[in-house]
Amino acid sequence: MGAIEVRRTVATPLDAVWATLTDFAGYGRWIPLTTMRTDPAPVRPGWGFGGFTGLGPVGFLDSMLVVRWEPPQADRARFAVRKTGRVLAGWADVRLTGTAEGGTDVSWREEIVPRPLLLGRVLAPASDLVTARLFARALDGMLGAAAQAPPG
Predict the structure, then answer these.
(1) 65 vs 9: CA distance, rounded Å
(2) Per-residue confidence (pLDDT) for residue 120, from 0 to 100
(3) Of 40, 140, 141, 148, which residue is 20 to 30 A from 14 by alpha carbon distance?
């Protein structure tokens, strides 16, 4: 079991990438069968959100807390979350760095561990593969949306 990392470099400015990646209410557009729930704004450490994944009432809530919140400043930005749900444990750490050409380097590190943790460790090889594919696809969708967003 280990963290997966998805890296991308895009021509999109850091502020536009940040705005899309921190639109937690919109994550359901990129994560299949998921609807989002969020605490009231503003986002800050201790702010919570979650994705309910399932069909109708059958599914699970992947709840998370923001543990680090560093909006864009000096061509850098970062946020991190900790998973607090009954079904999934883990964390995510997302770092953005502006490029000399005006684009953005993105590093999304994530570890998802099914609970109970002993079972999660046994399932790690398969769950890590699914996590890597899911987040690569979701991140690519988010970055595509950020590239098309009107300048803000």
Answers:
(1) 27
(2) 72
(3) 40
Those residues with Cβ within 8 angstroms of residue 9's Cβ, 6 or more apart along the chain or in another chain: 99, 103, 104, 105, 106
Please state, in angstroms and rounded to a whole number, the distance separating the CA atoms of residues 31 and 135: 9
Model pTM?
Answer: 0.91
Determine the Cα–Cα distance for residues 107 and 143; give it in Å rounded to an integer.
12
pLDDT for the residue numbered 149: 82
Q: State the Cα–Cα distance between residues 95 and 76, nearest whole angstrom.
A: 8
The radius of gyration of the chain from alpha carbons, rounded to an integer in Å, stands at 15
**Residue 81 exposure: Cα atoms within 13 Å on the Cβ side:** 24
Cα–Cα distances (Å) from 119 to 60, 105, 134, in that order, read 17, 35, 21
Distance CA 28, CA 138 (A): 10
Taking the C-alpha atoms of 127, 132, 136 and 142 in order, what is their torsion angle to the nearest 10 degrees? 50
Convert the pLDDT of each residue in 53-87 to its tens digit: 999 889 999 999 999 999 999 999 999 999 999 98
Counting Cα atoms < 13 Å in the Cβ hemisphere of 73 gives: 5
The low-confidence residues of the chain, meaning pLDDT below 70, are: 1-2, 152
